[in-house]
Amino acid sequence: MTPLPRLVVAAPASGAGKTTVATGLMAALRAAGYEVSGHKAGPDYIDPGYHALATGRPGRNLDVHLHGEELLAPLLLHGARTPRPADLAVVEGMMGLYDGRLAGRGFASTAHVATVLDAPVVLVVDVSHTSRSAAAVVAGMAVFDRRVRVAGVVLNRVGSDRHAAEVASAMEEIGVPVLGALRRDDGIAAPSRHLGLVPAQERAESAAVLDRLAERIAAQVDLAAVVEVARSAPPLRARAWSPEEALAAAGLPSASEQGDGPVVAVAGGRAFTFRYAETEELLRAAGCRPVVFDPTSEPALPDGTAGLYLGGGFPEVYAAELAQNTALRAALLEAVRSGVPTVAECAGLLYLCREVDGAPMVGALDAVGAMTPKLALGYHAALAPEETLLAEAGDRVSGHEFHRTGVASTGERAGPAWLLDGRPDGFSADPAGLGRPTLHASYLHTHWAGCPRAAARFAAAVHAR
């Protein structure tokens, strides 16, 4: 039994202001002296970036599809103790409280996560076009599934003190406390583009906006009451996840048995902001040394690079900057062609193509990328059709797609990285002719805590290199 004060921030529907309130609570509680661990239900990369800025520690994801229900509590506990013990954890939900997999009866919904974590729920309710009716919505949310405990509400986009009082009176009638009421303020909203919110790492004003948001939350939300809600959560019947134990179960020795190990160059900067915190933790536990580099500005790979991890992000937005860095593109091409083990997810896949929307890229893949009119979004059951850098033939993993680009092969196609529900995706190749695949490029995002064998195989290839 592990004690951890915690709560889930949810809403009746998308667009109510969950990210604003959850991130603001994290920042305000931190300013009040609490160590806060921030988490996001679902696969989203962008919200955890704001959480990290608010808490001063990695933002983390909890996703039933990507790592299974059994790892929800262990990963929450791991995040709450890494890099230092937290006083409480705040989990931001996704979509509406009960919205999950289609035809799945709420599977993988925010309510599902809250139930598994035995965490009280704070509902963010947009009251900009309603008053007493908001209480009827909350009352329905509270009784729809009796396993879910709605412990309070934060009213968002309140028009006036009279408006707030009217809604609060109705909430009192149904027995749900109002923890705060936030006025309308477009000045704290994050801008959006083709894949949702603009990541915090791309906005120079993010820190200043977050400071303003924290001040607003502290002034208009009862932080002491919020902390009491978190403290009402019972101890969790779980142990914290351990990257060392996960790798040991996958058959790879821990870092203590391998020493400092080789460098894995990890793409970062504004163009590559999508990766899960546990990815680098697993690499460190495997004895590798992840070193982040910015492909838009740095002329060379980190010294001693023996592996490449090119995660997700927005190469289509920063195509000009990436194209202009010819020295790094040449270094990457040479590294991939010489057999340096390389994992490329989504943005990394695009970056390794010959070009993206006409802008020259690395050219390690004989393919071109381009923007498309339709968003590709969804979870997939992935199968390795043959041995790859990350999987043995027949291995299965869960992953997700999230992109508005497409890639077309322009030459002799390598084998697919995965079959996504039977559809070939990406490239698995042996560019150096070593007799084994050293390049794995795909649109599929995976959470390596849910498939530690992939991390173990990649780390073993890096050590062998």
UniProtKB/TrEMBL annotation:
Catalytic reaction(s) noted: hydrogenobyrinate + 2 L-glutamine + 2 ATP + 2 H2O = hydrogenobyrinate a,c-diamide + 2 L-glutamate + 2 ADP + 2 phosphate + 2 H(+)
Keyword Ligase in record: yes
Domain called CobQ/CobB/MinD/ParA nucleotide binding: residue spans: 7-195
SUPFAM superfamilies cross-referenced by the UniProt entry: Class I glutamine amidotransferase-like, P-loop containing nucleoside triphosphate hydrolases
Domain CobB/CobQ-like glutamine amidotransferase: 265-449
Enzyme class name: ligase
Pathway in which the depicted protein is active: Cofactor biosynthesis; adenosylcobalamin biosynthesis; cob(II)yrinate a,c-diamide from precorrin-2 (aerobic route): step 9/10
EC number(s) per entry: 6.3.5.9
Active site positions: C346
Cofactor requirements of the protein: Mg(2+)
Misc note: The a and c carboxylates of hydrogenobyrinate are activated for nucleophilic attack via formation of a phosphorylated intermediate by ATP. CobB catalyzes first the amidation of the c-carboxylate, and then that of the a-carboxylate.
Family annotation (PANTHER family): COBYRINATE A,C-DIAMIDE SYNTHASE
Free-text function comment from the UniProt entry: Catalyzes the ATP-dependent amidation of the two carboxylate groups at positions a and c of hydrogenobyrinate, using either L-glutamine or ammonia as the nitrogen source.
Similarity comment: Belongs to the CobB/CbiA family.
Domain-level remarks: Comprises of two domains. The C-terminal domain contains the binding site for glutamine and catalyzes the hydrolysis of this substrate to glutamate and ammonia. The N-terminal domain is anticipated to bind ATP and hydrogenobyrinate and catalyzes the ultimate synthesis of the diamide product. The ammonia produced via the glutaminase domain is probably translocated to the adjacent domain via a molecular tunnel, where it reacts with an activated intermediate.
Name of the featured protein: Hydrogenobyrinate a,c-diamide synthase
